[in-house]
Amino acid sequence: MTASAPRYMARFRCIAEACEDTCCAGLTVPISESRWSLLREKVAGSPDEARVAALITPNPEGATGQQAGILGKRADGHCAFLDEAKLCSLQRRYGEAVLPDGCSVFPRVLTRWGTQVEMAGSLACPETARLCLLAEDALVREPVPEEQALRPQVARQVAAGDDAWTAHADTVREAMLRLLNRREVPFAARLYALGRMALGLGDFYFPGTTAFALAASHASASETEEASATAAREPMAGPALAASEASRHANASEAVDASAFATREPLADFALDANESRVETAGSRLVRILREYESVDTLASLHAQLDALELPGGPWAGICGAVLRSREAAVSSPRFLSLVRDVHASYGGSNANPDEAWRLHATRRAALESLHGERVHQYFLHHALNHVLRHPFTEAPSLLNAVFLLVLRASVVRWVLLGHPAVVALLEAPGTPVSTLDAAAVEAFQVVAKHVEQAPTFLDFARGLAGEGPETFARLLILVKGL
Ligand code: SF4
């Protein structure tokens, strides 16, 4: 059996004591009932028996099963079982089998698409972030021995294929990956196209859709298979926010006429005549829409539309700043807090006027583009491609919501990167080597991945900000224009 993984994950090895942000630092580590029981068995009669009994306690929230116990932490926020060499003392003495699933698998993220196990990486690990962002071929997918994908039994099964939403998921995901790789238009235009594609699919392709079942007599599986074949897999190149705050930023979308986008077809050429639409099945409609976004003309047209759209950047800056302030209040990691303080300061303070902060950001963005535009493009492309692999869109309430979350995460990282003190200094000293930018990027992407992207409060904020239906697309435009 093989699994598949992007090349950077095949290259990954934990750097242990050399790691600048050991994975258990600042995080709560749960252990399952079965793994806890195995550990107790292994340490019985040894000096570790008392340590395990004292340092692993029942989940205070009363959870059982996978989250039955919680590993204790030292005063510095690291796991109580981490030794002086920053290595796990339990693994060293009793082997990998006793580790909680999170410790064993991290930073691997395992997903089972049908019968195939896929391994992606969490950029919350600094070494993973380095390998993913900095190597040009990092996202080329290839087979890896299944034993490299540790504990495949814990892989999420996201595409069982027993409903239309998951049955077509792989086809849709491949189309997303191809679109993200279309270098003939800027990265923001590709994200805009992704949003338009999701909007076009949204009225018949969603969790629980019956559109495909109703049309089963017309749709043939071969239609989607054909789409997959014609577009053969290409290597990929290259404390909670107050509800009022969330809605205040969401209201920024009033600047965009959502209904104008929601009620017309993405492009005039895409409109079907009445006869065609009567006979078109959901399966063939899905294939047709995905193909439309393969077209050079479609992308060029969408790029021109996005360019012509004028939106203020202040709301985008306001959203990014609010996300950081909210996480600052909840996270104890000195590494995260120090960077966030620097980022706020670079934009004029944590409560800076969003329009002024945006002006600073836009000036820096243009300067960095002219110095290292290709390098920065690689970071964000790799982050986006990895996001699509690591976060199956089938877990979102809609494809458009999944795209929205990707663009929001990219926005927050962009804000942090352009506020990073090393980047601000680099713009004033253009001869600075690109390795300085790389190091700042690794830190920015990693701390955001570790302390923002997966936080339940951030995900709640993202859901509130996205809203529902047509308004989601209008709000997506604000984020895309900020990128
Ligand atoms: S964060 Fe990554 S490199 Fe660092 S200790 Fe954990 S797995 Fe190893």
From TrEMBL:
Keywords: Cell projection, Cilium, Flagellum, Methyltransferase, Transferase. The gene is fliB. The keyword Transmembrane does not apply. It comes from Corallococcus macrosporus. Residues 225-234 have a biased composition (Low complexity). Its EC number is 2.1.1.-. One of its GO terms (molecular function) is methyltransferase activity. The lineage of its organism: Bacteria, Pseudomonadati, Myxococcota, Myxococcia, Myxococcales. This is Flagellin lysine-N-methylase. GO terms for biological process: methylation. It comes from the Bacteria. NCBIfam families: Lys_methyl_FliB. Residues 225-245 are annotated as: Disordered.
